[in-house]
Amino acid sequence: MAGFGTVGSGVWKLLKENGDLITSRSHGTARLEIRRIAVRDLEKKREVEAPTNLLTTDCASLVDDPSVDLILELIGGTGAAFELVASALRAGKPVITGNKALLAERGQELFALARKHHTPIYFEAAVAGGIPIIKGIQESLIGNRIRSIAGIINGTSNYILQRMTEAGLGYSEALQEAKKLGYAEADESLDVNGWDAAHKAILLGSLAHGFLIDHRQVYVRGIEKVTPLDIRFASELGYVVKLLSLVIARENGSIEIRTQPSFLSKKNILASVHGVFNAVAVKGDFVGQSLFYGPGAGQGPTASAVISDLVEAARSSHPDRGFLPHRIDGELVPIDDTSTSYYVRFSVTDRPGVIADIATVLARHQIGISGTHSPVDPDHPDADFVDMVFLLHTCPFGVLKTALAEVEQLDCLTGRPVVFRIETL
Ligand code: NAP
Ligand code: HSE
Q1: What would the pLDDT profile of 310-327 be if each residue is shown by its tens digit?
Q2: C-alpha span between 54 and 77 (Å, rounded)
Q3: In the CATH scheme, what architecture does the domain 337-423 have?
Q4: Is the CB of 99 under 6 A from ligand 1?
Q5: How far apart are the C-alpha atoms of 391 and 411, rounded to whole Å?
Q6: Residue 154: which of 284, 57, 251, 243 has the closest Cα?
Q7: What fold characterizes domain 6-122?
Q8: For residue range 356-383, what is the model confidence (pLDDT) as tens digits?
Q9: Are 29 and 315 in contact (CB under 8 A)?
């Protein structure tokens, strides 16, 4: 096992507590024993004690040890983790990993190596923590053409948004809480800039559609710029703000994929996914809509997912597990060609004609307005408004961008427009 942090310690604890149960449930096939543990710092005080003779700072020694059958990669990142996984595959040792960044960014090379050496990569823990969504798509829904996947798949962001909404916490305070609880990545910017969720969406989309989605072509926005003001306006309008990842198949086979904070109706089932919980709604042509729900991060749930792969690897003699592309290539829909309705908040100077000026530009681009919102203090009806919200009818994102670029030239604007998609799913 490489990595003895949040997840590695969880795996150690689970094996200690439930190892015998696993052996008996697998009729003796899965006798799991950790032979070596690679860490960065041998002197570090750890939450869980392991015999010191197991610890090493030399990842390569795990692969070289002839008594090691399987490699757990739980260190994270795309550098040392890549070297470890690649050398394990070359040595014919199956790999279990929870590292979505590694697979989404360097999966092309690693899955090719896995195929070349007939050695599997298992990655249940890489998406949605304890929810068995990888096996769900790879196995349980294999008979379906997947029409859409809509997921809340970053526990940290969901936790932060909820704490901002319900406890009125500031963004940084909420992030510190998520870090303390072991939800955040070692590089927490991946959680809040949307990339952790995007990596997971790339893996789900690739499994569902049979070609490895190129991360450089994926549209990603995070929650860093979500303000309490927009969360409040959303609520007043009947919505919640969620970091939503979408993978939608078009009739012609091309794929829409995006991750961004979005407005969701409070009535949508995903609106009630709170805190560190994740949910993935998968629509298949035969199964219809299925919802996978559970804890999306944290020590116990992630260790549970890692162990499921470990047992499968121990039991399985199937050589080609991992990702088997069945399309040579696939086409992604450019983000500008994707359409939804929108919430747009303009920060403006209150003067006669402001609304008309903005509406005129929008109309020039054939963008319809379905509603407006600008809170007025009932005790001061003459006070200037500074935030003008427009709800806009469905139009391509590219058209909206062009229109907003023109609106930004108006002298009444005091800041950049804030845009959320309204997803009806
Ligand atoms: P973590 O708490 O930061 O632990 C990382 C561990 O890896 C530490 O023990 C560290 O050693 C060790 N390490 C880092 N670089 C190393 C290197 N070059 N050589 C040897 N050891 C090295 O991270 P984590 O939260 O457990 O996450 C691990 C992986 O699981 C990541 O890929 C993450 O994305 C994924 N994951 C995490 C969660 C979660 O809820 N935390 C959920 C799903 C998936 P030291 O202890 O000596 O520093
Ligand atoms: N940092 C990740 C999250 C861990 O918050 O969802 C689970 O992949």
Answers
A1: 999 988 754 555 677 777
A2: 23
A3: 2-Layer Sandwich (3.30)
A4: yes
A5: 21
A6: 243
A7: Rossmann fold (3.40.50)
A8: 999 999 999 999 999 999 877 777 777 7
A9: yes
Torsion of CA 227, 232, 236, 237, to 10 degrees: 20
Ligand 2 center–CA 106 separation, angstroms: 19
* CA proximity to 124, closest of 310, 366, 358: 310
DSSP H or E run through 281: strand 277-284
Task: Determine phi and psi for 102, rounding to 5 degrees.
Answer: -60, -45
Q: Hey, where are the domains in the chain?
A: 6-122, 133-296, 337-423
Homologous superfamily of domain range 133-296: Dihydrodipicolinate Reductase; domain 2 (3.30.360.10)
One-letter amino acid identity for 248?
I
- Assess contact for 388 and 344: CB atoms under 8 A: no
423 CB within 6 A, ligand 2:
no
Q: What's CA 401's distance to the chain center, in Å?
A: 25
Atom of ligand 2 nearest to the CA of 153: 6
Chain centre distance of CA 313: 25
pTM over 0.70: yes
286 three-class SS: coil
CB 71 within 8 A of CB 309: no
**Three-state DSSP state, 417:** coil
Task: Answer whether 420's CB lies under 8 Å from 339's CB.
Answer: no
CA distances from 260 to 109, 151, 200, 312 (A): 28, 11, 13, 34
